[in-house]
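TL;DR need C-alpha cells for one chain.
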Amino acid sequence: MLRWDPSKLIDPTTIRNAFTQAFFSIGAGIGCILAYAAYLDQRSALPREAVSVVGLDTAVGLMAGCGSSPRLQRLLLLALRWIRHWRLRWAWLCR
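>> reply
TL;DR here they are.
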C-alpha cells in the first residue's frame, strides 16, 4: 500500500480516484464550514475556524485510512504525538 510506484502517476484510474477524493473532501469541508458558520458568534475569527474544520476533515480521513493499514495507524499516532508536543510548547510560549 505504501510502496512507491511511479507508473501509477499516469494511470487514469489513479488520477480519477485522486480527483474523486479531492472533490469529496472539498465538498464535505464546505458543507461543514457552512453548517458550522451558521452557529458562529460574530466575533469569531473565521480563518481560525476554517483551519479547524480543514484539520478535522483531514484527521477523519487519516483515521479512516488507519482502519485499513497498521502502517498508517502508526504514522497517525506519531503525528498526533508530535502535534500535542508542539501545541503544549506553543501554549507555554504564549503565556
